[in-house]
What we know:
Helix content is 17%, strand content 33%. The chain is α+β, with helices and mostly antiparallel strands. Strands 1, 2, 4, 7, 8 and 10 form a 6-stranded mixed β-sheet that branches. Strands 3-9-5-6 form a 4-stranded antiparallel β-sheet, with no helix packed on it. Strand 5 and strand 6 form a beta hairpin. 31% of the residues are buried.
Amino acid sequence: MITMRILLLSALALSAGTSGAAVWTASDNTGGAIPDGSSAGLARSLVINAAGQAITNVQVNVNISATTGGTAFLGDLYAYLTNGTDLAILANRPGSRTGSPSGYSDDQSMNVSFSQLGTADFHNYRLALNGSHTIPLSGLLTGIWEADGRLVDPASVLDTSPRTAGLDVFNGDTGDGTWSLFVADMSSGATHQLSSWSLEITTIPEPSAALLAAAAALLTVRRRR
Length: 225
């Protein structure tokens, strides 16, 4: 029995060592103006072929800037990513909180990444960068951030709203298919444009039939003890 368990565990280790994670990428540089003060927003799509493999992480890179001669208050933005099955909220009026429902008034562009590997909540980016909600940005917003995750009406979202729609909603889905980015400017008077965006989807292969059978055999041996 001990020998059998050692053989099965060796098979598991060998499989793990020979079937590493893969990263699938796609990008879109066509851009487009984001309608000002409208929930109609702007949608763009990318197609990923991930060979049917299961997702372990999704990274979304988004480049948004002010239109020429205009302004771009980052607190106006509402953005999500969907694969047609699940949906992750990337930004939901960042900075919106009790006493400041309009969000942060930073007239800046942003070139950021959203990932499960991010180190801070994008909704509170000023707090993360400057230690205060009231200290404005002095330049371009960059970095790798956790998605906002607040699946709440942008008209009533707060920093205390529950974060139920982060990028982890895609974990276990297959990476294949059409992925869509939606961005809206929820307050009039500050005009944005989407300059570019891209996806990086990390996957792992599904276990082989032989490996699943070996795992089942190991479980059977343990139950008989």
